[in-house]
Amino acid sequence: DIVALSPLVDKWRTFNWHVVEVDGHDVEQLSAAFAEAASMKGHPTLVHARTVKGKGVPFMENRPEWHDRVLTEDLYEEAMKALA
């Protein structure tokens, strides 16, 4: 058996860490979270960026098998069109 990691954020808070939760696909939220982390004194900070693997590419989104696969040239073009 494996000990569950969830709820991960609550575990960090239990150890008195400052936790900032953001949409990991939102650059403005990430930038604000890093600024907040840099300004924190007296507590370490965890930036928890919620993300979706392959976000925005229909054939990849939420498909774990794409974690370590290589795109063909055709699939690369298809992905770039989806992200445009």
Description:
With 84 residues, the chain is α+β, with helices and mostly antiparallel strands. The chain has 3 helices and 2 strands, in the order αβαβα. The radius of gyration is 17 Å and the shape is flat. The chain starts with 7 loop residues before the first helix and ends with a helix. The mean pLDDT is 93.
Secondary-structure map:
Layout: H1 8-14, E1 18-23, H2 27-39, E2 45-50, H3 73-83
Parallel strand pairs: 1-2
Report the radius of gyration as a whole number of Å: 17 Å
- Oligomeric state: single chain
The low-confidence runs, each spanning 5 or more residues with pLDDT under 50, are: none
Termini, distance in Å? 43 Å
Total E-strand runs = 2
Structural class: alpha+beta
What is the helix fraction of residues, given as a range? Answer: 25-40%
**Average of the residue pLDDT scores:** 93
Please provide the ordered H/E string of secondary-structure elements: HEHEH
Strand content: 5-15%
The description of the largest β-sheet is:
2 strands, parallel
Within the largest sheet, what's the order of strands?
A: 1-2
Rough shape? Answer: flat
Number of helices: 3
Provide key terms for this protein.
84 residues, 14% strand, flat
Short recap of the structure:
The chain is of the alpha+beta class. The protein has 3 helices and 2 strands, in the order H-E-H-E-H.
